[in-house]
Design a protein that fits this description.
This protein has 4 domains: 3-153, Nucleic acid-binding proteins (OB fold (Dihydrolipoamide Acetyltransferase, E2P)), CATH 2.40.50; 180-332, OB fold (Dihydrolipoamide Acetyltransferase, E2P), CATH 2.40.50; 341-496, Nucleic acid-binding proteins (OB fold (Dihydrolipoamide Acetyltransferase, E2P)); 509-626 and 638-729, no CATH class. The protein is 15% helix and 33% strand. The relative contact order is 0.09. The chain contains 15 helices and 31 strands. The strands form 5 sheets. Strands 8, 9, 10, 11, 12, 13, 14 and 15 form an 8-stranded mixed sheet that branches. By secondary structure, the chain is of the alpha+beta class. The longest helix is centred in the last third of the chain and has 22 residues, at 675-696. The chain starts with a strand and ends with a strand.
Amino acid sequence: MAVNLERHFNFSEIQHLKHNIERSERLHQAQAEHLCFVLRVERYIADPTFQSLVKSKHATNTSYDVYDLVITDGKFKLKCVLWTALNAFISKGRVVAGSVIKLTKCTLLYDETDLNGFNFVLIEDLTVDGTDINFSVNEERIPWSPDACTREQKQVPLASSRGCYVSLWSSFETYGEVWEQTVPDSQSVSDTTVLDCYTLKELSRLGRSIKASSIPPVIVRVLTRSRLRQYAKPQKAEKWPYQISMVIGDRSGSCTAVVWNSLCTKFNKNIQEGSVLLLENYSVKPHFSVYTYANQTKVIKGSHYDIDLNLNPYNPECKVTIIHASAVESCWQLPSLEYELIDRKQLGRLPDNFICDIVGLVIFLGRYERVAPQTTDSLGRRETFWVIRDVELVDPSFVYTGKTFVIKLFRSIQADTLDRLCPGDMLLCSNMRVVHNLTLVSNSRQKRHVYLTCTGETQVTIIQKSRSTLDHPVVNQLITWASSSRGSAVVRAATYGGYFSYPPLPKDLQLYKQLWPENRAMQITQSDQWESVLQSLSYRESRNLIVQADIVRICHHSLKYVHYRRTSEPKMLVDMEFREEVKFQHPDYMSDNGTVLGSTELYSESLPCKFSPHGREHILSQATFPPSVYSSGLRRAQGASPALAIKPSFSYESVTLMGLNHPVMLHTVFLHSELSLHSRFINVISNNARSRAQSHGNEDSASWRCLCHIDLHQLDTGRTEIILNMAYLLT
């Protein structure tokens, strides 16, 4: 039920906020606390403008992210800047659109180079009062505070020269209305324009000898296009640091075209693979784009020319016309958009890093996880995040081989498509890269855990079974199979969510060491740093933790659903029977000294759920992140529905680790899908440790020293999932 803001806030808070801050600073008085409601949380990349505005109050600032908050008391609203030292409030999901916060310390900063007196509120300290109240708020009806400047009222970063905000949770996704522009297709092209057009072959011959004032038009088809690339850096003041790379082709061959800067906002949604473009006023330069592809023969049937067509918003201003399919003439002889579709049987025979297209039926849909790149920025930080989800697809060969496509999809390629993906959907993925993980392969008979990952040019499409526009034998075969009884049975067994790790780690320590080449040494975290690592996790962040520790306790847990009770609500209440059995316990486990981290509990969010057509809304709600803009009645889905549990019973081990030098214990959870895997882990550890202890004559105090690979994930609920992926006994 929505609650009116009038019952919670003082209507004089926002209207006089700037005045009260300035007065308290001038008189050197303690600031009054201000209670307010967060309407918006928006992010942008720091730049020199931000550095110059805040340096008068804060001599040093090396942050990558800056956040603007739009706050209200119900009567007026105001846009403020959050001091970067408080970024953890946002990155950990503690302050979101819809939070109630109390401002305890603020500063009013002026732009001393602006004669109009531009100023803004810098929030230097705050406390969170709550996020669970569903307030009835319509932001559009709340006026701006009388002293809000013009820039505050625009949809642009407040303390920066950037042209737009970026996604709140991913460093590589678009955000805001500026990216929603649509350009209508042209229904016709004049005969004069067509006659004036050059081919790409002719352009390559003339090269830079063409005068900018007489560049001829070209008509081309987009064969592949990259995701939108952002190259903003804190030390560079670029308003539109964006780029889109494409391979374009005509009857004579193909070349690369690059869309730059603000032109990307206009055409990011409108130019797709297969689009036919009329390009005018572009510039021709030698090939220097970042576009790369491992298998050129996939998209290039003729010659590929070593030139770039640069489409700029100025000097010169490029004119791009998207030609409607009905206006495309066959006499132009444009290359068709083709797919090199493979089936699952062919995948194992393809070389490493091969670029291919696949199509399949979704049988597993992993959760979204935020992963920091392996490399850091120039300041050594890891503030940028990819948003990734694992997906399993099958094709008709699954019935005979039992093999699936395991793919890792990055949300930045097409967030709107991935957000509405569900088990049972047919998914077409183009320009995927094959990964064999050959480091661990020593002979041809050894099992290879092959998977596919995205490239910068990957495109994903959900195929409608009843009206597919792609006429390809592989697609038609999949549609027929998916509609059969066998295909339907596979979909009924589909799952989503929960902990998922692929490819599996090697079982041998020496093979595990091969995963770490000389230029990327294994990073073993010391026990005195375990707590800080857990505390540093951001919202939905996944990270690996490698530790050397003693196993001091192993406990077997079993959970069984014994009764389902239907209620009037969509979900059911479940009665559960819980048992635990200690398999091993070292005397040091009972010590009260030191820090205890983690939990022996297996969280429901770590378990996959069985797919049901009635649970489609639950799946889609789990795909969403806390929004940047508050909407009344919009609540975050947390956890998994017990009614959708994959099995009526399951078991797991809790494994407790102890640091070698520091009195700190870490509880981890070891999951096993098969009894053999469970037995192997317990027996190998216990048998080796017991034989070693017997040789020393003291079995009860056996020390099980292991190298442990742990998977961490920060859940929506604020709890940390700590999964023991693999433990290697050290002798």
